[in-house]
Amino acid sequence: MTNNVIHKRYKVKGMHCASCAGIIESTLAKQDGVVSAEVNVGTETLKLSFDESKTTSNRVSAAIEPYGYSLVDASEDNSDHGSAHDHGGGSVTKDEKLKELSRMKHRIVSAIPLAAISIFAMTWDIFAEYSVLSPLPATIEKFIHHLMPVIATYMLFVVGKPYLVGFFRFIRRGKANMDSLIGMGTLVAYLYSFAISAFEEVLAPFVDVKNSYYDVTIVVIAFVAIGKYLEARSKLKTGDAIERLLAMQAKTAFVLRDTEGKPARYADGGKEHEVPIDRVAHGDFVIIKPSGKIPVDGIIVEGSSYVDESMITGEPVPVEKQTGDPVSAGTVNTSGSFVFKATKIGSETILARIIKMVEEAQGSKAPIQALADRISAIFVPAVLVVAFVALGIWIAVGTRYLGFSQALSFGLTSFVGVLVVACPCALGLATPTAIIVGVGKGAKEGILIKDAATLQKLHAVDVVVMDKTGTITRGKPEFVGLKNNSDRDEKEIISILASLERISEHPIAGAVVSYAERRGIPLSQADNFEAIKGKGVRGDIGGATYFAGNIKLAKDLGISFDFSSLASETERGETPIILMTEKSILATATVADALKEGAEEAISRLHALGIKTVMLTGDDKNTAKHIARLVGIDEVVAEVLPEDKLGIIEKFQGEGKTVAMAGDGVNDAPALARADIGITMATGTDVAIESAGITLLHGDISKIAKAIALSKITMRGIKQNLFWAFAYNVIGVPLAAGAFFPFFGWLLNPVFAGFAMAASSVSVVSNSLRIKTKKI
Asked: Residue 554 to residues 530, 571, 592, 623, 746: CA-CA distances in angstroms?
């Protein structure tokens, strides 16, 4: 049965608040065939798993349409090649959001001056009541008295139409959201005021007909509309990391094809054609001109240049590219020109995969969000209960002490105030908006975060365990020096040594061969080659037998030599390679794995964050300790096998530590998987970015501290958001209900409730946007 379950991501149209997410999730949970449904308020997306043998996406969408929502397949805009530019249907959704934002702006443009008239009249009355100002002239007061119902009618039925629709959906379907609360509150205030206006003489003996609530309807709807507009505009800004990534993608490409439309280089009669990005095929020869964007991934076959990869890796210095080197979509050529062969197109490119990963991470939920989600799910029904209870208590109890007219007035004020002030949006947006901004900022820095849970866990890291090779060091041994113990020429010595090592598969051998090639030293044929396991190699060159290897090999040959003289090289982290005949030592070359640039500073930054650093390596203790001393590592575990690394991680976890493991993902995959957070150092462009919790592009060790700092900043923002969202509702709802009235005489005017409700959501989103400005 599980084979029929498919997992897809959809954009949700019609979402306005956190309670919307609860309605969608609870509705879909009852649908036959739906396995799971998870809505993200910040990105307005639905992660849906369903059994396609029992239901379809159209049926699922139809189930929520009566509540005002619909689903848009996030991948339906993709072509077969699925260009990164179209990835996720982002441009379509952005256009729809901009149109919606434009409609909201038109509504508030008409609402603001009308609300200003109401606020002016309301303020003047308050000041006149306390003799600060003289009352308005009778003609003006009468004009305003008749104008207020007209303005309130326009505000309720035109500007406030979405809230009325939400209220009537609640009446029909029994499920309420924030729009339902605003619609109910403002409609009650309007109908009560209209009844007083229409039946003033009839109602005068029973209620205070001088107090109407038209101003509440007008100003509350204006404040809420302005708040929703500012919130929507701010939410668009939280997702601009995706827009930035999408903007990297070239829209067209120049390809070389023959008269039959097949890929062909210039030498084979290929002609230049400009084609849309989705028409680039595997094997196409793509021409890149100066300042041109690289449209797809591939391998250079002609020419050379320097390519700016900062948009993907975060590295500001252009990288030299020559024939045989890989290039990636979204990077920018500088001054040269070259031709490359397309190897990965559309959704296969590193850029498309980065975009997908960022989208999925931004749409995921952090564990810290669970409490807010549970509260949001019952928030609106609870608020409705509180509003009706407050109204009932005011009428039942207040009539005894204040009289029916005053009690009803306070009861309606509380009823409307509670409905208006309560805001599930602030709670619902507190976590996802901060996650969206945090993940986007990370992507901009070349830090790819798999999901929100990883970002949350990262802030609590106590210990960072690092593999030495490829993480702290470059992972590519380099030739350091040569000590000649014979009367032979140095070039001859290097030629013999490199000729032997050329056939060897050991990583150290490559350093010697590369050094010889850089110096232009010719190499010779090595006959009768033999690899001596764990010790070195032997071979015949020019009729003589030579050996190259370590101290063990020299001792096996019975050569007399003061090996203690090599101790200093070993202590410096250098590996000696001894060139020998069967009777004597000719020379000793030293090779070392150089430190990565900025390694010492990176470790220092981790210490500044209060994090313990541990280095794991299979190298000997002397080499490991030397490297650790150079960069300031706290603890060294040397001479460990790949399978032993798992035990080291478990040891620290057994001590109650939260452990992050950083490695190249090749021979330390089990340890990366066992650690609380696995960090992959991606040194190339063709990387498995989906496999680790955190992927650091360009293999930059300094980004480990940056990733942790980003996590701490994001979590601080989330906690601030949740505190203010909870505090706002915990104080605002009782204040509006009149809980403080018997003790202090405090009762929240619905006008101020509307302002506070609008401000709460905007403040949460704005606080999340501050993460962008923080330096990591």
From this structure: 16, 20, 20, 20, 93
In sign, the C-alpha dihedral spanning 195, 201, 207, 211 is: positive
Tokens 């040569």 belong to 482
The pLDDT of residue 565: 67
What DSSP designation does 469 have?
B
Cα dihedral sign, 359-361-364-366:
negative
Query: Among the listed ranges 181-195, 470-484, 704-718, which one has the minimum average pLDDT value?
Result: 470-484
Region for residue 336 given its phi and psi (left: phi exceeds 0; alpha: psi -120 to 50; beta: otherwise)? beta
Name the token pair of 519. 């110096």
Q: Letter for the amino acid at 377?
A: A
CB contact at 8 A, 523 and 539: no
Mean per-residue pLDDT of the chain: 86
Contact (Cβ atoms closer than 8 angstroms) between residue 342 and residue 287? no
> Residues of the chain with pLDDT > 90: what percent?
37
Which of 179, 284, 451, 467 is an active site residue? 467
Q: Which residues pair with 158 in a beta bridge?
A: none
Q: Spell out a b/e string for 766-776, using b for 16 or more CB atoms within 10 Å of the CB, else e.
A: ebbbebeebeb
CA 273 centroid distance within chain:
37
Beta bridge partners, 522, equal none
Tell me how far apart the alpha carbons of residues 129 and 138 are, in angstroms, rounded to a whole number: 15
Strand partners, 303: 338
Q: In what order do the strands lie in the sheet with 34-40?
A: 34-40, 45-51, 5-13, 70-73
Alpha-carbon separation of residue 661 from 119, 670, 681, 711, 751 (angstroms): 59, 10, 10, 16, 54
Q: Which residues contact 160 (CB under 8 A, 6 or more apart)?
A: 182, 183, 186, 217, 221, 225
Per the annotation, the verdict on 467 as an active-site residue is: yes
**What is the rounded CA–CA span in Å between residue 364 and residue 435?**
9
